[in-house]
């Protein structure tokens, strides 16, 4: 089995009916990039930059240190695209207590000052991160991804901060390229107003981990309710399906970078929704590719309404898998 998965590595990931499916890697630190390459990822779909800021005591990385880290990833990926997510701090990923920018003492951290909200409240930190990311874009293909977007206003403020960062780099004579700007779709509100967000963003990436948490009101870190954390909940599936469909209808790239993208139980369902870009832990790429190679995307798409209408979508999914395996 191990050897068979190894052989899969350099095989293009294409469905039976010829649809190219992009399999990307989620990484947390520059040291993870070689594993992404080794797994056959065609790029980094999610670089969780907050890991550069965690377990640091009171000292957070400045622009220069961040630039070196982002550049190391871009160079390790050797021309493949790298999607860098701006700091997604707060809730399950707190900054150290000693830091002046600590996110401690929030009554409800998952609903508090986290991710892009935190960045917009810390304009100097945000500016330094944007400049570091822009500078890394001079060394390869970089895309910029914003976590926890909930409001079109946030897009405007990010665009503003980005143009300030560009002007500062221009003044210093620092080179950078144009970077595409994307939004994480992980708050139900964002999925529900997707067309307005698509006016401001070049691409979207669905964060199913948080989308499940916020749709079902289940704290993803609270063990007392972990049995209710249900990726198969029809409300979650509807939000994912409509996000994919609307992004495609608007001609904008859409991927899934939450755990569902790397869980083989959901591969056929996501293909049925029209997804062509999956980002996951590098260790999952081979098994997802295996499922992609056996899938008929068009056939799956015709069956989607049936699954979405089902009260137990996982049963409907299991049924169609049983029939397609028998074919
Ligand atoms: C998500 O929420 O699905 C996601 C990819 O981001 P994180 O798990 O880092 O919050
Ligand atoms: Mg998230």
Overall radius of gyration: 20 Å
The SSE string, one letter per element, is: HEHEHEHHEHEHHEHHEHEHHH
**Could you tell me how far the N terminus lies from the C terminus, measured between alpha carbons in angstroms?**
23 Å
Strand content: 5-15%
What is the share of helical residues? 40-55%
Major sheet summary line = 8 strands, parallel
Global shape: globular
Read across the widest sheet, the strand sequence of neighbours is 7-6-5-4-3-2-1-8
Topology:
Blueprint: H1 2-8, E1 22-27, H2 33-38, E2 44-48, H3 63-76, E3 82-85, H4 115-121, H5 123-136, E4 142-146, H6 152-172, E5 180-185, H7 188-192, H8 194-198, E6 203-206, H9 208-216, H10 234-249, E7 253-256, H11 267-272, E8 277-280, H12 285-293, H13 297-309, H14 313-326
Parallel strand pairs: 1-2, 1-8, 2-3, 3-4, 4-5, 5-6, 6-7
What does this structure look like?
This protein is of the alpha/beta class. The protein is built from 14 helices and eight strands. Strands 7-6-5-4-3-2-1-8 form an eight-stranded parallel sheet. Helix 3 packs parallel to helix 5, helix 5 crosses helix 6 and helix 13 runs antiparallel to helix 14. The longest helix has 21 residues. The radius of gyration is 20 Å and the shape is globular. It starts with a helix and ends with a helix.
Task: Give keywords.
327 residues, 8 strands, globular, binds magnesium ion, 12% strand, eight-stranded parallel beta sheet, single chain, binds phosphoenolpyruvate, alpha/beta
């Amino acid at each position: 089995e191990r050897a068979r998965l190894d052989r899969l590595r350099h095989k293009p990931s294409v469905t039976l009916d010829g649809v190219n499916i992009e399999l990307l890697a989620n990484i947390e630190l520059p040291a993870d990039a070689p594993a992404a390459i080794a797994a056959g990822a065609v790029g980094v779909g999610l670089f969780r930059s907050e890991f550069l800021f965690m377990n640091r005591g009171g000292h957070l990385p400045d622009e220069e240190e961040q630039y070196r880290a982002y550049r190391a990833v871009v160079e390790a990926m050797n021309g493949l695209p790298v999607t860098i997510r701006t700091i997604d701090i707060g809730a399950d990923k707190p900054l150290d207590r000693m830091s002046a920018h600590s996110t401690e003492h929030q009554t409800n951290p998952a609903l508090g000052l986290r991710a892009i909200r935190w960045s917009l409240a810390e304009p100097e930190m945000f500016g330094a991160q944007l400049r570091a990311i822009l500078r890394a874009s001079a060394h390869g293909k970089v895309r910029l991804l914003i976590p926890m977007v909930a409001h079109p206003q946030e897009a405007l403020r990010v665009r503003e901060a980005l143009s300030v960062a560009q002007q500062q780099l221009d003044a210093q004579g620092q080179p950078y390229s144009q970077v595409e700007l994307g939004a994480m779709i992980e708050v139900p509100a964002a999925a529900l107003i997707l067309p307005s967000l698509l006016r401001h963003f070049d691409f979207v990436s669905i964060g199913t981990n948080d989308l499940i948490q916020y749709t079902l009101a289940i704290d993803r870190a609270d063990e007392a309710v972990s049995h209710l954390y249900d990726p198969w909940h029809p409300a979650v599936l509807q939000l994912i399906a409509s996000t994919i469909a609307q992004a495609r209808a608007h001609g904008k790239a859409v991927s899934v970078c939450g755990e569902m993208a790397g869980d083989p139980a959901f591969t056929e369902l996501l293909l049925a929704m029209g997804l062509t870009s999956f980002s996951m832990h590098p260790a999952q790429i081979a098994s997802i590719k295996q499922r992609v190679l056996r899938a008929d995307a068009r056939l799956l798409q015709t069956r989607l309404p049936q699954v979405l209408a089902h009260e137990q979508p996982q049963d409907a999914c299991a049924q169609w898998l049983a029939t397609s395996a028998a074919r």
